[in-house]
Request: fold
Amino acid sequence: MAAAARPRRNSAPCTTVSRGRSAVVVHAMGTSTPQQQDAGSLDVSGAVVQPSFRQTPWAAEAAVAAAGGDRAAARIAFVSESGTCRCVLAAAAFRAALAARDPRLAGLVEVECRATKDYCLGDGPELLAARVASELGLELAQGYAAQQFKESRDIVDFDVVLVMDKFTAADVLREVSVFDTIKTWGKANYSSKVRRLGEFNPAAASAAAKKDLGGADIQDALYGNVGGEEELEAVRQAAAAIQQSCDGLADFLVTVDQRHQQQQQQAQQGADGDAGAGGEAGALAASGRLGDSLTAAVRELEAMDWLVPPMLQAR
Reply:
């Protein structure tokens, strides 16, 4: 039998005290004593207090329910680390791809960008991103300013959240997955709204690429800030992958919309709203909103165990 690990000297005991909606973690300095172990008599005069706050998505759900028919037919979020390069190019490429396929549908879908980090909030598109967009004939949103992804609001407000790589997926799911564990009623599945944009790239859509941790990633072209022609070429390569992925995403949405319209017509004719469609997609189509059908279709994509947080994986 392996020997028990020896405790580190001067390790700090940790006491968690619940106060309202926050948890206050108290790390007492020095060696633990019986008095310090008793939360009622703990001397915190030399302690480090680290409050941890987390908002739930319940308020956002109530707001969405109250909005009812005033919501857009579908809402899609593109998420990158800084919110100033890849997601900006993705939003522009997707708008162009969808408009080329179905102008009516393009007018119904709202597209926004979000950042997982806060160091570029309020900034416009990167100059290289704007340059490459111009080369490709893509129109960037006027007056764009980077916003940070707010988990408790955005995971409810958007019908699908498309991240650029495994790192942005981890940033988003770190908080979103918590909601799935604490909501013990109804059907949550917030985490299943999150997918990588590169999964819709026909060139990377093989089963092997889906299972590969980085097989469908769109790399951060500005990582390392090498500058010059090398960085410009990296942005061009990322933009090419983004365009291919957005073409595939637009085709996917057109197919979802066609199925959604068929189900709505059947419902209006008095037929079963689930006829001709199985699973959650058929059930949610009865809501009359394209975004619900889009969410259901995304949830029916092939599951990727690596994208599912460990606490939510099947045992």
Remarks:
- The longest helix spans residues 228-268.
- Residues 1-30, 273-277, 281-285 have pLDDT under 50 and may be disordered.
- The first strand starts at residue 14 and ends at 19.
- Residues 12 and 29 are 6 Å apart (CA to CA).
